[in-house]
Design brief:
32% helix; 6-stranded mixed β-sheet; Alpha-Beta Plaits; elongated; 4-stranded antiparallel β-sheet; 2 domains
Amino acid sequence: MTAAISLNGLAKTYANGKVALGGIDLDIPRGSIFGLLGPNGAGKSTMINILAGLVNKSAGTASIWGFDIDANPRNAKASIGIVPQEILFDAFFTPFETLELQAGLYGVPPKQRRTMEILRAVRLDDKAHTYSRTLSGGMKRRLLVAKALVHNPPVLVLDEPTAGVDIELRQQLWDYVRELHAGGTTVVLTTHYLEEAEALCDRIAIIDQGRMVANDLTHTLLATAQDKMLIVTLDADIAAAPEGLGERVELRGERTLAITYDKSRTQAGALLAQIGNVGLTVVDVSTQEADLEDVFLKLTRRAA
């Protein structure tokens, strides 16, 4: 089966010599929730804009749902819905009018339009005939999601969809994204909230300085992080952290030690034995595994 999105040697160099993409090879599986991560300026938005037809690539090929963006631009654009990072729409249109216009631009016949169905899905049906400029920030974000769905695309790209929205709305949005995914939609997500990517994405690619530095299953990426933290509470106050327990030992308060160590080389039991050997008594122990943020920082620092 062809990939939902397939990039081969995709490159973009701007007129001023700025290399935004240095030759990206990437296949996004159909039916997945795929995370596309990277620092600001890494090239994520350039990649999305090329797929949207807003930026011309310098080299390489790109296809969406099997349609090459150069050879079959109409079919490629019909196969993807993009929710941009910026909130852009006509302030004097209602949500209903906005979706009707968007459906018309995609050539959706009036009898096949699902305007009210989509507005209900994003919980904007009660605002269907209110001027869009009166909507709250979170409602405007949901309206952008609705616009991307009017032509029923098999691929949905969400570019920082929860930026600036409250926790409740973020949860509502992810619940809806999960519903879309369960219905067969391939979802591509860019986000700075790494805990979201860790919780939602089946697979994650990390881009830095226009190049791919990682592309793997989420749980496989997490397994590459070898750092682990042992947090121990002592039965008495100590003035300073003892040396030689791990790569980094931090005294938190007067009775708590946070010891960071490489779990591939050291076991927690050995550290606890060392603590006992220096005359300290442990009354409580907990461990903390590395998360996606640790992997992200490790890979982007290495690329830099």
